[in-house]
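Exercise: predict the fold of this chain.
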Amino acid sequence: MVKLLSIVLVGICCLTLVSFDEETKQADSKLTVLFDNIRNKDGKIYIFIYNYENQYPDNPYLNFEINKQVVSDFGTLKFTIPKNLSKGNYAISVLDDENANNDLDLFFGLPLEGYGFSNNVAPFLSMPKYDDLLFDLSSNKKTINLTLQYFI
């Protein structure tokens, strides 16, 4: 009986270690975003990453703030997400907060500052649908291009 119990415990421990190892291996993908069409070096860029629809747009899975002083003279920026991601589907939204007030400034409901979405979705008078923003992160390294949009 003791021998059977020992075998069962060893088996459970091995399964636990294997499942723990699988979880740590899953977050091994690097995502790089190449931004273009950034109109100036004023303020900050905010990146919001979503991996479930119920997070969009108000509760992102991850968010990052970039000082725009690193933007090239050509209005481009390369940013590698500093955290490894698990393989799966993701969506991204971006805000170019030119006056660094932590908000998208509007004029009669129209954005005065830049914004962008994964797959370069160009919304018309509303937020785009989550499914339209999804891209597949299925490799260990992925680079996506994101063009910022300015309405005014």
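Check your answer against the key: Confidence is low (pLDDT under 50) at residues 1-25.
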